[in-house]
Design goal:
Layout: H1 2-5, H2 10-24, H3 26-43, H4 46-65, H5 68-84, H6 86-94, H7 104-114, E1 120-124, H8 128-139, E2 143-147, H9 151-160, E3 177-179, E4 190-193, H10 200-208, E5 216-219, E6 224-225, E7 231-232, H11 233-240, E8 247-251, H12 256-259, E9 265-270, H13 275-284, E10 290-295, H14 298-320, H15 325-345, H16 356-367, H17 372-381, H18 386-393, H19 398-413, H20 418-429, H21 433-441
Parallel strand pairs: 1-2, 1-4, 2-3, 4-5, 5-8, 9-10
Antiparallel strand pairs: 6-7, 8-9
Helix pairs in contact: 2-3, 3-4, 4-5, 10-11, 14-15, 14-16, 14-17, 14-19, 17-18, 19-20, 20-21
Amino acid sequence: MFPLYFGFKGGKGVLVGAVMLAFFDWRVFVIAFALFILSVVLTKWISLGSILGAVSFPITTWLFYRDPVLTAMAFGMAAAVVFMHRSNIGRILHGTENKFSLRAKRRSKHRLTERRSNMKVFVLGTGGWGIALAMLLHQNGHEVTSWTYLQEECDLLHRERCNEKLLPGVVIPEGIEITTDMSGAAKADLVVLAVPSFAVASTAERLAKIVPPHTVIVNVGKGLDSKHGYCRFSETISNAMNGSNPVVALTGPTHAEEVARGIPTAIVAASESRAAPELTQAAFMNDTNFRVYTSSDIIGCELGGAFKNIIALGAGISDGLGLGDNSKAAFMTRGLTEIARLGVKLGAKQETFAGLSGVGDLIVTCCSMHSRNRRAGILIGKGATAQEAMKEVGATVEGYYATEAGYHLAQQQGVSMPITEAMYAVLYGGMPAQEAIKHLLNRPRRGEHEEVWVH
C-alpha cells in the first residue's frame, strides 16, 4: 500500500511496490515479478503486468501461509491496485493502452507534432464559439464534425453554411460536417465540448456512453456547475466520464467573432494531465493566428474564466449607468482581487490570475462590445431587468448563471467576495444597481493588499 498511499505511479509505483513485496516474502515477490515480466514481454503493457502481479499476491500469500488475516490483507491491497488501474483496464479492453518502448519518450514529442494534422475532431455545440473553433481546427488540417442538439439548427446550417445571428458574414467551410448524431464522437481523436454552461453536465453524461476511455475531452465553456455543488466543469465532465478521460480546459481572452475571422489570438490549455494539454496545443495551435500555451493549474484557469463573466456583467452595468473609466477600472481590479482570493483558497496558483485566463480574459470581456455579458450589463444599467437584458442579447449570458454559482461557492468557502455579493443582490435580489454601488463604497476601510491573497 506504500506506493498507493504516497501517490507513486508508473515506474516509481512498480519499483517501490516490488521492493516492499521483496521485504515481505522473497517467494511472493519472485512469482509476482515473473508474472509482471512475462506480461510486459508478451503484451508490452506495463499496466497489465502490474495488475497481474497484484492479483497473484493474495493467491501466493494463501499458498505459502494459509493465514486468513494475511490473505485478506493481501486481497485488499490487490483490489486497491486493480482499482487504481481502472482507466488502464478500459484502455486495454479497447486496445488503446500505451505500450512499453525504450524509444517511447524520445518519440513522444514527435508523435504530438505528427498528430497535429489529419486528426478526427468532434465538436459538440454550434454556437458562435463552437463554430469558430471548428473552423480553426478545419483550417489546421483536421477532419472536423460539428454536432448540434437541434435538428432544425442542423438543417439551417447545412442549408445556409453560416450563422448570421452569432457570426455575421462568416461562412462555414463545406469540409466541416454538421450532424445531430453524437455517435461519431466514438472515433474521434479529440472531443471538444462547446455547449452552453447549463448543458455541460447532461452532454457529458451522454458522451460517457459513447467515447472510449482514452479520448481527450476539451471543454471550452466557462462557468460553474450549480447542479452538482458548484464544481468546476472539468470536475463535472470527469465525474460523468468516471475519471477515464483526460479533461482539458481551453480558456483565455477570446471572442468567437475574431477567431472566426482569423485575428491573432492567444489562449491557454490547462489540465492535471501533462500529455492532454500538449495534444490540445498541437491540435489548435498554428503559426498564423492562434497560439496556445499549456498550464497545469486547471483550477485557477477555470475559476478565472468563470468569474470574469460576473465582473464583465457588472462592468456593463457601470457603462449603462453612465459611470466613467475610473469606476470601471476600480470594478475590474477589485473584481480580479476577489476572484484570486477564492481561487487561492481552492488550490489555484496566484500567478495564474495574472495570465491569459485571469487578467487577460477579464480585459477582453469587460471592454469589448463582442461580450454578451457586457452588453447585457449595459441594458441592466439602463433600467432593464436581467431577464429582459438576456432576451434582448439573444444568446447565453454566462455571467448571470456564474453569479449565482460564485455567490454560493464563496459562502460555502467562507471567502469575502463583495462585488460578487453585490451582483447577486442586483440580479437575483432586485436591488437597484446604484444602491449596490453605495454598499460597495461604504465598506470598512482597509489596505489594498491586506486581503488579496489567502495563505
